Amino acid sequence: METLLLWLFYISTLYAFIPGLITRLFGFRVFRRGIGMNEFALTFDDGPDPVYTSQLLDLLKKYGAKATFFVVGSNAEKYPHLIKRMHEEGHLIGIHNYVHKTNWLMGPAAVKKQIQRTNKIIHDIIGSNTHYYRPPWGIVNLFDFARRNETQIVLWSSMFGDWRQRLGADRLTERMLKKLRGGEVFLLHDCGNTLGANAQAPMEMLKALERVLQVAEKQGIGTIRIDDMIQRSEAVKRESRGQKSMAAAPKETSKQKASLSFGKRIVVSLWLLWERLFHFVFQLRTTNKEEPIFHFRIRPYRGEPVMMNGDIELANGDRVLELHFDNKRLFEIGSRSRTSVQIAIQMIRGVEKTLPELAQYVQTHPELMDVKALYGVSMINRGPEQFGFTVTDLPDSFFARSTRLYLKFLMSVIHPSGGDRLKQRSSHELIPKLIVMPMELLLDKYSEDGSHRRFSGKESGEIASDQESAEPEETALSATQPC
Ligand SMILES: [Zn+2]
Questions:
Q1: Coiled-coil ranges per the record (predicted)?
Q2: Among residues 89, 96, 128, 162, which one has the fewest Cβ atoms lying within 10 Å of its Cβ?
């Protein structure tokens, strides 16, 4: 039962929750906002609608505005003339699934089908493919990331609640004007027939939009299609990257990351709440309640026998103390550190501090004396060895593969240069490995009355500088499998 629960947890977390979270938090691998431009993007979801879409197209024409439509495939099928008109009038067409259904409830094959079917419908009408995709409700799952080469996921920077009629055109106008500036991606709806929307809501939207377009015109703010916005933003990024590397000023990116916005902080706290729930369900323990670095639980080891340091064999069924790195700690370290070297040093200090605490804990809890080993999953290959861990391959399983993906995502979140860094690194360095240490070794090396209080005479400063010259990024990955 417990195993089943754990699997459910991993699968739900991996498949939907974490990717969604990372998307919202860091805009990782999705497009949400343009940079360095005076135009804003109008995007319309859920259509085409037989009543409102043609009114909207008239309005856009009147103001010379260009927009992006994320259409629902089944609607496009019913109203091909509207798709044709969008295309002919210079708007961009993207995909919003075949039926308006969340990707959380569908398997990867079903999502793929939704996208392909819609793409085919669009292709049959306008004669070309589209690879711009907005999942319903902006909810992405792991496989949406995997398909990134085929599809560009587009979310938004501003939404206004325009799907509710009672908001009214006045308040909607007010909300939209507040966000009216270059680079914004406005999310609006030209169809009110989806779950949770009001059928007549687009009427209010059209009124508000006309006023906003008038103000935009006065202020000299133009509209831009998403494809053009992405292209222009990338050019700006490339340019500024070139300038930055010439000026050699690496500080700014980490500073930006360090100051999380209010919204991001809310999401982080939701994640941490989720983690607390996990800790409660699996009754994770810690050696240090005020400043936890690791959490752990006792469970039987399942798998092939592993030969550990000191020639002790870990066999199937032996009790192990499974380590989980504290995610909150990880966030703190990640947001405080400017470079990967700093992350590495912080994490090494954390591990160094925890191992003696763990030894102490085991000694004072007689029921743990038959635990044979410390056990965790880590993505580093060299770091843990200096502490006495043996690093071995994880058997190739769905679990190993999903852990690998999860740790990759996690790493891109905590690392100062985020996902960019990951792309540069070859994949073999990101393979999760099993790390194990015999309990005897832990007690011997790290307990107060053990033969050595610290591992083989190395001081923390020395380790830190070792790491600086070695591969610091790898050490930053020394989180055992986080939950
Ligand atoms: Zn929608």
A1: none
A2: 128
